Task: inverse folding
């Protein structure tokens, strides 16, 4: 069996969420689709929308409402770069403000895409 995932949510200022021993993660992508992430998932860099992020750990199924951002998957680590948490009602809406937040991460995306993914040592 593959090692469980580690989920980390970062803002430009701080780490706002971390979960260990995560069995799976579901996130909504900017292209309109959802993504299920399981242990052993291939490396990926993607744009997320304002929506609930769902995951399962030893305590059961969890959900956190996050603003739009960037998702990175590498070597069992799932990292979300976002501006922070949002209210539950806001997480269901998709507005021009969301596009503005994602555009703010444009420089980060270009920088990350310009460099090859380096596995994170465990």
Result:
């Amino acid at each position: 069996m593959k090692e469980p995932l580690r989920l980390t949510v970062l803002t430009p200022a701080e780490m706002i969420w971390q979960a260990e021993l995560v069995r799976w993660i579901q996130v909504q992508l900017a292209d309109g689709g959802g993504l299920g992430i399981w242990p052993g998932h291939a490396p990926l860099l993607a744009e997320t929308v304002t929506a609930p992020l769902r995951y399962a750990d030893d305590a059961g199924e969890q959900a956190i409402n996050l603003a739009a951002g960037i998702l990175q998957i590498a070597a069992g680590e799932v990292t979300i770069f976002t501006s922070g948490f949002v209210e539950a009602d806001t997480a269901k809406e998709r507005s021009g403000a969301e596009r503005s937040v994602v555009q703010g991460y444009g420089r980060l995306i270009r920088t990350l895409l310009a460099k090859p993914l380096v596995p994170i040592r465990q």
